[in-house]
Amino acid sequence: MSDIKVLFAASEAVPFAKTGGLADVAGTLPGELSKLGADVRLIMPKYKSISQSFVDRMEYVGYIYIELAWRHQYCAVLKLVCEGVTVYFIDNEYYFNRDGLYGHFDEAEQFAFFSKALLSVLPLIDFKPDIIHCNDWQTGAVSIFLKAQFKYDEFYKDIKTIYTIHNLKYQGIFPKEVLGDILGLGWDYFDSDGLEFHDCVNYMKAGIAYSDLITTVSKTYAEEIKNDFFGENLNGIINKHAYKLYGIVNGIDYQENDPAADKRIFESFDAENIEGKFENKRMLQQSLVLPQRRDIPIIGIVSRLVDQKGFDLIACVFEELLKLPIQLVVLGTGESKYEEMFKNAAAWYQDKVSANFKYDGVLAQRIYAGADMFLMPSLYEPCGLSQLFSLRYGTVPIVRETGGLKDTIMPYNEFTGEGNGFTFANYNAHEMLDAIKRALGFYGQKDAWEAIIRNGMKQDFSWKKSAQEYIKLYRKLLAMEE
Asked: CA of 12: how far to CAs of 28, 58, 87, 89, 139, in Å?
């Protein structure tokens, strides 16, 4: 028998539904925690978009009714075991049989229903977790429901909550009438220590204020969100609860992303034999109609083309960048001004720039495997995964020292031979350009460059490592006195 029981609550998880990084975490972390001996089960909404092949395998568990303020709503539970993890789906056609996961007019009600339902169905599914692990604003109301509306029920008495912030920017902010009309809570919860946020109700603030522990997706981001610049107007409440805030960096799936076995890339390779990497580079150049030159480094970018990802810095020094002896391969979609910038560059510099405005998982993987350097000059980056994929595939990251980028990329030190990339500290275009030029200087030194590649490939940013840190935190929470 496992000594820790965890219900992992998320609004999306691969392979069922995905809009962003939360889905990757929710789809992978429970399985890794299970391998370490915890009994971890995932719970999420049953969306219309979930593939029929999964729906056909779901087993009906039962149904109850959920009281949401004055509403009396049907709630069925379905179950599916996927890669060893039991997944429960909250089924209500009115709330979840819709196109798209988010952005509906009644989101406040939708995710209040999900939060209350995942608590209410626990006796039905016959699972009493020690900890409910909530994620982002969509499950922000779980902890306050537990403390305000379930605490008198013996079944729920000892259940603890952990709340993970994946991106502080998205908070679930709604009119204050939501407090009584949807959450069914009294005005005593509507203050600066509770849900009140500029005369509105804030679901993420509820998660921060009422959960037993808070985590976010890197140690540096956990520090950054305490200040005004990164705090998104929540740094006051975060500082108040800083004693229970921890940073644990996300991992990536090392089996799915293995250069020695990945069928999506042109040629397999590993840290001991990196020759295959240069064949990936040649084939990437060929497929994108760039000159096949090993002596010219490819700088790869796989990203949303938006300000947050540092594209205003790139725009600022774009002419100078294109004068350097490089090839630039860009994959992503975003703001039209940046798409236009790369489109024009690809027309003017056909032997230097390849611009690809789409989502293409195979091409992304080929860029991670075939590029020499990977540019990520983000304004802020809670964790970041692209730099981890780059390291795994022997591509040297050039990043700004923020959030997870600072935690995972160590600047190369030519005197000690340590380091796995190149970094710059200030959000400044010429500092970024200097970091790129520094990387180009070492690219010309074959032995040094190959050492940097191997340094990155030998590091462990798998989920196993992160899962071990979460287990430690779970144990810490369960050892705490009431």
From this structure: 12, 17, 12, 11, 11
Assigned token pair, 189: 């919860």
d(CA 179, CA 195): 8
pTM listed for this prediction: 0.93
In a domain, 261, yes or no: no
Of 480, 478, 481, whose CA–CA distance to 2 is shortest? 478
Let me know whether 12 and 33 are in one domain: yes
Residue 422: which domain range? 275-459
Closest CA to 253 of 404, 460, 454, 421: 460
**H/E segment holding residue 304:** none
pLDDT tens digits, residue range 98-113?
Answer: 999 999 999 999 999 9
Tell me if residue 162 falls in helix, strand or coil. strand
pLDDT higher at 68 or 151? 68
- With beta carbons less than 8 A apart as the criterion, state whether 96 and 46 touch: yes
Instruction: Identify the CATH number of the domain in which residue 196 sits.
Output: 3.40.50.2000
Q: Which two tokens stand for residue 88?
A: 């429960």
Query: CA 137 to CA 243: how far, in whole Å?
Result: 21
How do residues 58-99 score in pLDDT, each as one tens digit?
999 999 999 999 999 999 999 999 999 999 999 999 999 999
- Asked if residue 305 lies in contact with residue 335, where contact means CB atoms within 8 angstroms, the answer is yes
Residue type, 265: I
The first and second tokens of residue 479, run together, are 């050892």
Residue 262 lies in a domain: no
Residues contacting 387, CB < 8 A, separation 6+: 374, 376, 397, 399, 404, 405, 408, 409, 421
At CB < 8 A and 24+ separation, what contacts does 433-437 make?
A: 433/317, 433/320, 433/321, 435/398, 436/299, 436/321, 436/324, 436/373, 436/375, 436/398, 437/324
DSSP E strands in 303-459: the ranges are: 327-331, 353-356, 373-376, 396-400, 422-424
Q: What total of structural domains would you count in the chain?
A: 2
